[in-house]
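Hey, can you fold this?
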Amino acid sequence: MRRNDWKPEVSRRDGPAYLALADAIGRDIDLGLLVPGDMLPPQRSLAQALALDVSTVARAYTEASRRGLLEARVGAGTFVRSAGGEADARRVRRDLSDRSMNQPPEPDDPGLRQRMREVWDGIGPDMTALLRYQPLGGSAEDKAAALSWLSRLHIEAQADDLLITPGAHAALFAVLGELAAPGECVLCEAITYPGIRAISEALGIRLEGLPCDAHGIDPTAFASRVANGDVRALYLNPTLRNPTTETMPTQRRAEIVGVARHHGVLIVEDDAYGALLPNAPPAVAMLAPEITFYVGGLAKCLGAGLRLAYLIVPRPRAYTGVAARLKAATVMACPITTSLATRWIETGIADALLRAVQAESRVRQRMVAASLPSETVTADPDGFHVWVHPPRPWSRARIVDWMRGQSLGAVAADAFCVGIEAPEAFRLCLGGAATRAETGQALQFLADAFHHPPNLLQGSL
């Protein structure tokens, strides 16, 4: 039923107007003034009726949707949600998810989801064995599947050089803890993955950022810094870098490798996004296998909940200390998760899931291009995050606050910077539990904000 006659009582209070309106929606549902299936008024009509900014109503509808009260239907409008069903199950997962994390889009193909469930059910007969302790670094079967997966990325390795770890974070923690003692220096991009900042701080490592250009780390700056002889390692996220999205071309990778070899600096390559990029440049580990630790995780290409990564250590060095640190910190990768990933790889589901993530990421990148001014966005068409410079007078802090409650997570540049002043920018993740429709709504919400300077929105925040 269309409810153009519905006009809520929005109690004025010290808090944001959008929260007051979201509360009013919930209250009217409890009172029976709105019932499941009712179509709410268009945002612009309700904004006029309540003397509010359209962006405030849009934000209130989004907040009410986040609470599980409303659902938006593409091309139809916004409706009071019916109880039960898969949509509510998805809403629970979304409320529990951390939107500040960079996550791939979730598959919405019923056939693929059914195949994923069938593999999960197939693990059942092995459950007793999977509840036991497993060999450190993975079983022969799991390593074979890992090497098969890595071969798709043109990564060649031997089982003896491979360790299966409970996520890239654990692998990086073990590697950096082995390579650098407290107080020693590890280099990275000046704008880099925030997890490496947290790991370095926990280990007492001195992390220093290097200047970058459109192709990645400046080789001249790298050579100048390592000439002092006090650098233990270089951390790189060379493909679809988080958060700035660029991919280091082959020539630049070769230049970085040349400097590292000349000065005896080890490289830690975090290839979190490498599987997303068709025809990606060769991994640094393939250009310099004798000095590179390669970390290839599944979180960013299949699903963050897998918490599984494949670590390749350089040859001919043994680096038994890395394995010892992994065992001390994690004992082993979860056998249930590892078995699931292995079966997905063996049955082709991992490939199908990767293709689905790639296809949906490209769609969402096109949505960004159609919604936001091109001069504000740095992006790669194959990634699922973008680096956004908000137009003045918006600041990164204010726009991130403005995006709270939206289905897409925005994180200010401050979280990514090492040794430099943070630029007026933020990372916007296009994946996670957000549906395509919700992605479009969040992008439109952001686009509307860009067209309304903050001083016009004082009463809406």
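Oh, and this one too while you're at it.
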Amino acid sequence: MDSLKRLPELKKKKKEFTIFNLGYKDRQEYNSLKKLGKADDGLVKRIILEKQFRIQEKYGDDNEKIKDALYENLLHSIPQTLFFTLPLFAFVLHLLYMRSGKHYYVSHAIFTIHFYIFIYLDLLVMFVLGKLSSIKYLGWLNTVEFLMGIGIIYYAYRALRNFYDEGRWKTVLKLFILSIALLFLSIIFALVAFSLSVYKM
């Protein structure tokens, strides 16, 4: 009876963790279907399948190892993806402040570098606080972590106003537009970071 009660739990533990789910269990099944002419896939799908099979052969059925390797590679991909999005962010600033005629693209790039450094340090501290908050009696650090997240918005506002020397409401409006642009850049950032982390596995 105890075994029967634990059956759903055991099935849940045995559930496979796959980065891609393209309809093939492993390389052997894919090759068999390919020989029978039932696996006529395009170039992109074949490349993705090859990566999935290599991950399966490297880590086996150890889901925890796959997740840990993906997480570690994702962390190491962050600096590369930040470098990738930096010129795009600077270009958005260039478009927003083009009419003022006071700054060249290089100035926007320098501002972006300083802003990215602040974000990186702020997120690093937030990550440490998030880890420490799980310790007994340190749960209040979650509030500090939240305030530091809000602090990024305030810092962005003050930095834009001081650097570009524009009025309060103009700065707020441009910060809003910049935030929307940053949201799209974050999506690009996430996709690039995930792709790099999978590629390195």
